[in-house]
Specification:
The chain has 15 helices and 20 strands. By secondary structure, the protein is of the alpha/beta class. It folds into 3 domains: about 10-145, Alpha-D-Glucose-1,6-Bisphosphate, Chain A, domain 3; about 150-355, Alpha-D-Glucose-1,6-Bisphosphate, subunit A, domain 3 (Alpha-D-Glucose-1,6-Bisphosphate, Chain A, domain 3, 3-Layer(aba) Sandwich); about 365-450, Alpha-D-phosphohexomutase, C-terminal domain (TATA-Binding Protein, 2-Layer Sandwich), CATH 3.30.310.50. A 6-stranded mixed β-sheet has the order 1-5-4-2-3-6, sandwiched between helices. It has a 5-stranded mixed β-sheet with strand order 8-7-9-10-11, with helices on both faces. β18 (about 400) and β19 form a beta hairpin. The radius of gyration is 22 Å and the shape is globular. Bound molecules: magnesium ion. Magnesium ion binds next to loops.
Length: about 450
């Protein structure tokens, strides 16, 4: 049975994810890592309960725990990568609503675990009996409150902090009541930025807005950037690994756009490969190629992107949801690095609104269709057969490549659904292809279910 989804174990607290599950998973994680482990959580109300249970499980099999308290996921990852620990455990459900929580693990370098390693943890989890440590060799807890500041200091060193300080920027910062409350105001103060903060009190029921930094959730910061004539708006998700930006004219900048602009900026100094999932806009590829870089596509999800970046020694990578990875700092989505690098970018290259205008324009249509997990493979095969004359990429699902755009159909890793993405420079074409694919896939699903 599978426990881990694309981003760790997630569920509704006290329905799917109980203290008992966390305890048992803690034991399994401890048996896998065998050495000391760092733990941390975001601000969710259930964080204390889930983390305590996980820590108890870890210690019951002899693993010592260093608890970092509330800190962003990338801060925990940075701590793990720079300290002598066997791994790290983060208690977070990232951008999910506040009734959710989750448990995710990173290896001793701070990188997300591979699927093979997650399977090993699952085997320990589903084993009938667990050998507990003898009473005199159970693990102990140590607190270490230094993670957030060390992480922020390391990020400051990775950018031209003097140039940012001298520019005397004004920034509106939305911490989404999440883990960013501990790190993002500190980062901006160290960079000499005048920050006006929104939702900067840590509060795990997310009273400000849902914790995903999408355009619908960020209306307050958008209007505040416009009315105060700020230089930039920065918004994080619940565990502050993702960052969304608002340009100085109060407009939401999509993740594809910030990824493209930062890729161009990074490539101007350091030519190399940029890695992104197949669901990203062709805008990214256009910009990367015209900036003298190479592009590599992966399956959807940051672990796949980070893995490919490691293998191809990429200079930059990221996802269209605002998860950006800066390999010179660490190979994971890094909210504070994204914010700091964007500040450097506007200081060096000018207003974000002007830079966005220069990007190639694409239209993307997104759809979802229901499809039971057991027929997902067959549905994909049928679609592949029906379209066998069209050039296709099968890195993740099926991506049909047309002269003026593409359509991607991919099975959701967490739900009995397919996601459809259709992109073209022509909005009508994008819509029409999305509609066609939606009705075609639905028809095939019905036929497969009737058999
Ligand atoms: Mg997140």
């Amino acid at each position: 049975m599978r426990l881990f989804g694309t981003n760790g174990v997630r569920g509704i607290v006290n329905e799917d994810l109980t203290a008992e599950v966390a305890l048992k998973l803690g034991k399994a994680i401890g048996l896998f890592f065998k050495g000391s482990v760092a733990t941390a959580s975001d601000t969710r109300t259930s964080g204390g309960m889930i983390k305590s249970a996980t820590m108890s499980g870890l210690m019951s099999v002899g693993v010592d725990v260093t608890d970092l308290g509330v800190t962003p996921t990338p801060s925990m990852q940075y701590y793990v990568g720079t300290h002598e620990v066997a791994g790290g455990v983060m208690i977070t459900a990232s951008h999910n609503p506040s009734q959710f929580n989750g448990i995710k693990c990173v290896d001793s370098t701070g990188r997300e675990l591979t699927r093979e390693d997650e399977e090993k943890i699952e085997q320990f989890y589903f084993r009938e009996r667990t050998e507990l440590s003898k009473w005199d060799s159970v693990g102990v807890i140590r607190q270490d409150g230094s993670a957030t500041e060390s992480y922020v200091n390391a990020v400051v060193k990775r950018v031209d902090a003097d140039a940012i300080r001298n520019a005397r920027l004004t920034v509106i910062l939305d911490c989404a009541n999440g883990a960013a409350c501990t790190s993002a105001p500190l980062l901006l103060s160290k960079l000499g930025v005048r920050a006006i903060t929104l939702n900067a009190n840590p509060q795990g029921d997310f009273p400000g807005h849902p914790s995903e930094p999408t355009e619908e959730n960020l209306k307050d910061i958008m209007s505040l950037v416009a009315s105060t004539k700020a230089d930039l708006g920065i918004a994080h998700d619940g565990d502050a690994d993702r960052t969304s930006f608002i340009s100085n004219d109060g407009k939401f900048v999509s993740g594809d756009k910030s990824l493209s602009l930062l890729a161009k900026y990074i490539l101007s100094e350091n030519k190399g490969t940029v890695v992104t999932p197949v669901s990203s806009s062709s805008m990214v590829e256009d910009v990367v190629r015209s900036s003298g870089g190479a592009i590599k596509y992966t399956a959807v999800g940051s672990p796949a992107v980070a893995k490919e970046m490691f293998e191809s020694k990429a200079v930059f990578g990221g996802e269209e949801n605002g998860g950006l990875i800066f390999p010179e700092h660490q190979l994971c989505r890094d909210g504070a690095m994204a914010a700091a690098k964007m500040l450097e970018l506007i200081v060096k290259e000018g207003k974000l609104s002007e830079q966005v205008k220069k990007l190639p324009e694409y239209h993307i249509e997104k759809r979802k269709i229901d499809c039971p997990n057991k027929i997902k493979d067959e549905l994909l095969r049928s679609l592949r057969d029906e379209n066998k004359d069209i050039e296709a990429d099968t890195t993740d699902g099926l991506k049909l490549m047309f002269a003026d755009g593409w359509v991607l159909v991919r099975p959701s890793g967490t739900e009995p659904k397919f996601r459809i993405y259709s992109e073209s420079k022509d909005e009508k074409v994008a819509k029409q292809r999305a509609n066609e694919m939606e009705s075609n896939a639905e028809k095939i699903a019905e036929r497969l279910m009737r058999r």
